Amino acid sequence: VPYEVDKLCYGEPDRPALAALLDELEFRTIKRRMLGEELAVAALKSRKTAGGRAQLGLFGANEANGDPAREEFTDVFPPEPDKDTIDTVGHEYHLVNTPELRQSLVHYLGLQDCFCFDTETTSLDAVGAQLVGLAFSYRQGEAFYVPVPPDREAAQRIVDEFKGVLENPAVGKVAQNLKYDMIVLMQYGVDIRGDIYDTMLAHYLIEPDTRHNMDLLAQRYLGYRPVPIEALIGKRGVKQLNMSEVEVEKVTEYAGEDADITLRLRDVFTPLLLERKATKLFTDVEMPLVAVLATIELEGVRIDPLALNDLSGGLETDVRALETQIYELAGGPFNIGSPKQLGEILFDRMKLDAKARKTKTGQYATGEDVLTQLEDTHEIARKILDFRELQKLKSTYIDALPKLVHPATGRVHTSFNQAVTATGRLSSTNPNLQNIPIRTARGREVRKAFVPRDENHVLLSADYSQIELRIIAAFSKDEVMMGAFRNHIDIHTATASKVFKVKLEEVNPDMRRMAKTVNFGIIYGISSFGLARRLYIPRKEAGEMIEAYFTEFPAIKRYMDESIEKARENQYVETLLGRRRYLREINSRNQTERGFAERNAINAPIQGTAADMIKLAMIRIHDFIKREKLRSRMILQVHDELLFDVHRDELDVVKTNVEALMKDALPLSVPMEIGMGTGLNWLEAH
Question: pLDDT digits over 589-630, tens only?
């Protein structure tokens, strides 16, 4: 093969051609990473143009002759030509590093209607993070950075200087991802007060389906590309610096820019919230919830490592037993965790499906949906599903949870995400405590490991009963369904009675089970195909069951049709409190996209209203606990359930008030019912 050595050398990519290709393929994230966001400090040079770090004049007045040189942030790849950067926009970011300058800053902050603040710390984990500095901004283009020493006592003294203004209820506070800053400062004895404004959550209500990190928001709404954190600390890896190791001049520019940009974003988002009629939802629900979640996260929950250890041993035995059974059924050992090997065993060796589907890589599909369809064909499919479930349970929760116990608190501190799910529901990470399996006995056993703080406390679980069905009954005004709830008749039994045309007392467990599946499936726009798969019945029978359901509950069908029509007209749907879910594909010619949007048109208002309801309940319960100065604490939220660590002496008063506050959080025409239980562990309480 003829070749030229020089042409074999690796060179720079053809950036315009690469950008065009990535745009065509819609690889937006890869494009940003390759051509726009992987930044580093490539050069350090002096600059004297406008936009350098402001000199010693703290509040705009120069106090020195000449400009001290500033280290400039430069990209590995040049900035996008249509984006401003710290090097092209005039700004004054001041280093506040003396008692006199700090005193002046505190004074000026106290004169403002509101100011923006940001924390620089040693960790992405708010619990246990050490402050490196505080940044403030109260007018566009100007910010102030206060470095905090690593010595805890010295750091506390500096934080105490700002405690008064941070806790001043007359001065509003603006931040991006406020909950993080709130948790960090709570550990320094600061309780943020005043009207609060989180730009991340504001944008979440404006565009719930997109990402909300500050860099992307700045680029989209301000046409500005911020200095990336990698420019200060480097890329992830062993050589990555801690923020406390970065020169204070660099941090001043970086932190000042963060505070400045966040303040600018507030000015952009406020009219957008008004335009979308989301201001009240923002001020009455999302903002008050920030302090509630910060308190819950900092509190954490105690786990019993011995209980998890016992469970781990039992699961290991079960996994090994299943492994042996699978090998016997397959005719020999293989790597069960390898989709490639599993596919070859099931479809080449065992011939379970002559029309087995293959993935784009050419190997057989062996996902849960495939194995579920094979359950009736061969018992190995069920064994593999059980094997996967137990393995995931063991690795994700049972073996992982003890490693997540915080060394300083001895508790597990999950992080609740307010701006992730488009419906308004909370999610949790590190660890994800909302995803612990509860449909299987083994999954429920994990909850045994969650225990009260000591022998003087018990766990209290409070759970909304059938909240989404109650909401759809209220929204649709279906008299039959509303009557069942008002008269405390089991809704699944009532549904079975109607669908199968038998008396209430003649409904058997199998009928109730199928009616329950229909009830919850209808909310999610289930099809006859989907219902048939869930109930293991013929598709025709499933279709007849759905048809019978809509015949008996015509108002439900009418509500669903009207929801879809309204979504087609507006391209969004709303919860009772006005939380919007945008459905821009509702009129798509693509049937899959359109069907997905139609199902969301039905479900999003229901699920979102349920989310708003429990958020309001959490806010009011938090206020009650704080107002009464109780020793009991709210420690977890899992979808429709709240978990409390309750002092035994306060159990009666907490139960009574929690139940009342949850029932009345968002009154509807259908009453809410709260299931409550107590115990020495979460499983027992639930």
Answer: 999 999 999 999 999 999 999 999 999 999 999 999 999 999
535 vs 189 pLDDT, higher one: 189
pLDDT of residue 87: 85
* Residue 126: partners with Cβ closer than 8 Å, 6 or more residues away: 179, 180, 183, 184, 297, 298, 415
101 Cα distance to chain centroid: 39
pLDDT of residue 40: 29
Terminal alpha carbon distance of the chain: 71
- What does the domain layout of the chain look like in residue ranges? 1-35, 38-297, 302-410, 441-467+611-685, 469-607
Q: Which two structure tokens, joined as six digits, stand for 609?
A: 């209203």
CATH number for domain 302-410, candidates 1.20.120.1760, 3.40.50.360, 3.50.4.10, 1.20.1060.10: 1.20.1060.10
Residues 6+ apart with CB under 8 A from 479: 555
Helix/strand/coil (H/E/C) assignment for every residue in 604-661 = HHHHHHHHHHHHHHHHHHHHHHHHCCCCCEEEEEECCEEEEEEEHHHHHHHHHHHHHH
Q: Among candidates 373, 173, 323, which has minimal Cα distance to 262?
A: 173
The first and second tokens of residue 347, run together, are 């479809």
Q: What Cα–Cα distance (Å) separates residue 281 from each residue in 273, 284, 327, 578?
A: 9, 5, 56, 7
On whether the CB atoms of residues 347 and 353 are closer than 8 A, the answer is yes
pLDDT over threshold 60, residue 46: no
The C-alpha angle with vertex 34 and arms to 202 and 11, in degrees rounded to 5, equals: 165
Nearest to 615 by CA among 581, 675, 666: 666
For 427, list phi and psi in degrees, rounded to 5: -125, 165
CATH classification of 469-607 is 3.65.10.10, yes or no? no
User: Does the structure show a pLDDT above 50 at 329?
Assistant: yes
CATH of 38-297, one of 3.30.420.10, 3.20.20.140, 3.40.50.2300, 3.40.50.300: 3.30.420.10
- Contact in structure between 126 and 184 (CB atoms under 8 Å): yes
In the predicted model, is pLDDT for residue 4 greater than 70? no
Going by C-alpha positions, the residue among 53, 200, 43, 187 that lies closest to residue 122 is 187
Tell me yes or no: is domain 441-467+611-685 CATH 4.10.320.10: no
Identify the pLDDT of residue 677. 97
Q: Tell me, what's the pLDDT at 34?
A: 61
- pTM of the predicted protein model: 0.84
